[in-house]
Amino acid sequence: MASSATTDAGGEDQHLTIPNIKVQQLPHLLHTLPSLRSHPNPLDANPFFRPSSEFYITPNDVVLRHILHGASDAPGPRLAYHRAGPRKAVYFEPGHVRAAIVTCGGLCPGMNTVIRELVVGLWDLYGARHIFGVEAGYRGFYSGEPVALNPKMVHDWHRKGGTVLETSRGGFDLARIVDAIQDRGFNQSIPCVHLNLLTLRSKTIRASTAESILLFVRPCPRHGTVVRRCALAAGTALLLAKSTSLPASRATWRVYIIGGDGTMRGMVEIFNEIKCRKLNIAVAGIPKTVDNDVGIIDRSFGFQTAVEMAQQAISAAHTEAESAVNGVGLVKLMGRSTGHIALHATLSSRDVDCCLIPENDFYLEGRGGLLEFLGARLKENGHAVVVVAEGAGQDVIPRSDEAHVEEKDESGNPVFLDVGRWLKSELKKWWARDHGTELFTVKYIDPTYMVRAVPANATDNLYCTLVAHSAIHGAMAGYTGFVSGPINGNYGYIPVEDVARAKNRVDTRDHKWAWVRSLTNQPDFEKR
């Protein structure tokens, strides 16, 4: 059985046929701008590269979505995505690139590394020399002047936590975003193209932390410095590019959005609005959420650093619990809709007695409940450690009023009740009720800001470099409506709608969750 893709990653018409492989079609600028001219890739002349016939990615280079299959599975096409990397042809002249970077929302390990690698990649790989940072979040587009960035300035940013450009939060106004793009207008008589790169960082819908990038390419009046001012949704970033080699009515911008699942959904909205207005704007993205809840990709950057820091908090909780009579160490970790950080930190530490995640409901009282389990563990060992993801137990925590159910934060995420403090209170009530005057201690640790604000570790730093360069290569090659990220260890380009629909929740029926339960010996919390 064979499947085909009729358009390659570079937009050339070609019939791609691979037995039993269905290659997901990737939009390209040539689909809407067929007369757009290509240019030789500047990497041909880059002294640090010696491109060979195998150097550039071709239409036949794909990454399989799934690599594990049963021998008895029914035959059929296997889904695949185009592999990320440099193409032999590009659709923007590097000398006409102008970039700006901004960070918004909450912090995450790797933010500064992504900024650094975007600056260095644009500068060293493609010769861009006009790159700017916007301070204090997207509000800085309206209230301040952009800061010129270059490789020398950002050379050590990967060693720093947080974001050197500073950050803020805000709301989302789709019409305002697209109006701001449309109202700028184009001057077709000016043959200068500007590529403005804007990087935004934020928490997203369902509380996934997101990094976002916005790139514009637009005409420059007399080569003046112009930074696009655009209000973006929390967790949404854009990368826009416009080619002035075409008439203004057919000019195209390129948009890159980097963020989590909510950001990807926002990217789809922006892309659909742009298409509805027929503005010929191309959209791309880089997925990022510290909770690791974006689907299809292997993981998001910052996740492994978060697990590493969470493990340190668990170690401290274990020491506190072990040093007290009937001591309980309670650690609340990030993870609103998924429990990946809690799960991986539990498997790594080997000190956890019970791991509570959003994907697995739990209850306190009765047979098979948390309190019965902890009572037995304290009787056996004299101490216990409980790890809980912040999104766990939201259905069992009493709410004071209906208004709280609908409460949202500045990024539009539902406001969760503090499961850590609630558990601490319930544990103390339980012990006082059932054990009288016996000694009992609960040490509660919430390392959220310690996890978010640290520099990325070596693994995440490498990830940030590869995903940033993948985005740059895809942008220069004319891709649109795609997301870059690792799939089964290889970087690929994924249609953004696929990513927006995909979820990466912990599967409590698979081996990994079984490993957690075998390690902790915790109950399954299924009432019988």
Would you mind describing this structure in some detail?
With 528 residues, this protein is of the alpha/beta class. It has 14 helices and 20 strands. The strands form 6 sheets. Strands 3, 5, 6, 13, 14, 19 and 20 form a 7-stranded mixed sheet that branches. A hairpin with a 5-residue loop joins strand 1 and strand 2 (13-19). Helix 6 (303-322) packs across helix 7. The longest helix is centred in the middle third of the chain and has 20 residues, at 303-322. It is elongated and about 80 Å long. Keywords: Allosteric enzyme, ATP-binding, Glycolysis, Kinase, Magnesium, Metal-binding, Nucleotide-binding, Transferase. It catalyses: beta-D-fructose 6-phosphate + ATP = beta-D-fructose 1,6-bisphosphate + ADP + H(+). Residues 98-187, 256-473 form the Phosphofructokinase domain.
